[in-house]
Design a protein that fits this description.
The chain contains 14 helices and seven strands. Helix 3 packs across helix 14 and helix 4 packs antiparallel against helix 11. The C terminus is likely disordered. The strands form two sheets. Strands 1-5-4-3-2 form a five-stranded antiparallel sheet, covered by helices on one side. A two-stranded antiparallel ribbon has the order 6-7. Among the domains are: 84 residues, TATA-Binding Protein (2-Layer Sandwich), CATH 3.30.310; 112 residues, Hypothetical protein, domain 2 (Endonuclease III, domain 1). Helices cover 42% and strands 13% of the residues. Its EC number is 3.2.2.21. Keywords: DNA damage, DNA repair.
């Protein structure tokens, strides 16, 4: 089954910036950018798996073709996913760098997938480890336990595992993917609550974040990372992130700050604190001094 749709926006359509947070590293089997101006993405919806190819139809329009049993549902969700419902009409920053970022990207829209578990599990895998290591873990697990992408997807693309598949991944397979027992338990426990988690899309984002944090192993960082993608939450701040507080400090003050300092700087921009982070990142105005060599992959050993 193939479905197609064109979404037109009241202004430039920067769908690449909108969808970028969904990419879990260059080798993400669920997200590919082949370099021809298109984005390929897979998802597992309630109606089934889907492969989607999103391209620019005009400066203010995006075109999507989708394959698989979930194609029609994906097409229906497309405008919301690309930020058509993202309301930034009350966002008028006075901070000079943030205002400059908004002038560069006045039509930046926040993604909203409506898929809670699909956003939550990779966020759990990314807890407390360098990004490259988490991306490798995601790639290993999805490649083994996901399913082939329907349609003419680029080689190697996979559909994310179902909640049932996540629940039944053996502990030693998490170990081989370098996911420690604590994160593995959290993944499995979240998958067991998949049905109730998906209902959170119907409640206010702040309330949904609180509900996520009631799950064992899900803290403020994981809840925020999930809310940013699944709910399009413009105010979900990734407190506890290794890089973001430093980036905010260097960009707005010229020196690094901790979480408390970041929250103080972003407070006047509530309820658009996450929007500020995305604007700074996507506009190219985010600044952080070059770091030293990346740490080696942290291997997990049994005791």
């Amino acid at each position: 089954m193939i479905s197609a749709r064109t979404v037109t926006f009241p202004g430039a359509a920067g769908f690449g910036h909108t969808l970028a947070p969904l990419r879990r590293g260059r080798g993400d089997p669920c997200f590919r950018i082949p370099g021809d101006g298109t984005i390929w993405r897979t998802s597992l919806l309630s109606s089934g798996p889907v492969t989607a190819r999103i391209s620019r139809a005009a400066p203010e329009a995006a075109r999507c073709a989708a394959w698989g049993r979930g194609a029609e549902q994906f097409i229906e969700m497309l405008p919301t996913m690309l930020g058509a419902d993202d309301d930034a009409s009350d966002f008028m920053p006075s901070e000079p760098t943030v205002a400059a970022a908004l002038r560069r990207l006045p039509h930046l829209r926040l993604v909203r997938t409506g898929q809670v578990l699909e956003a939550l599990i990779p966020a759990v895998i990314e807890q407390r480890v360098p990004g490259a290591d988490a991306f490798r873990s995601w790639r290993v697990l999805v490649t083994k336990y996901g399913t082939p992408a329907p349609g003419p997807a680029p080689d190697g693309m996979r559909v994310p595992p179902s909640a049932d598949a996540w629940r039944h991944i053996p502990s030693w397979e998490f170990h081989r993917a370098n996911v420690d027992p604590g994160r593995a338990r959290t993944v499995v426990n979240c998958a067991r609550r998949a049905v109730s988690l998906e209902r959170l899309t119907a409640v206010p984002a702040a309330q949904a974040r609180e509900a996520l944090m009631s799950l064992p192993g899900v803290g403020v960082w994981t809840a925020a990372e999930t809310a940013q993608r699944a709910f399009g939450d413009p105010d979900a701040v990734s407190v506890g992130d290794y890089h973001i507080p430093k980036m905010i400090g260097w960009t707005l003050l010229g020196r690094p700050v901790d979480d408390a300092g970041m929250l103080e700087l972003l407070e006047p921009m509530r309820p658009h604190r996450h929007r500020v982070v995305r604007l700074l990142e996507a506009s190219g105005l985010a600044y952080e001094p070059r770091r030293g060599p990346r740490l080696a992959v942290q291997q997990i050993h049994s005791r």
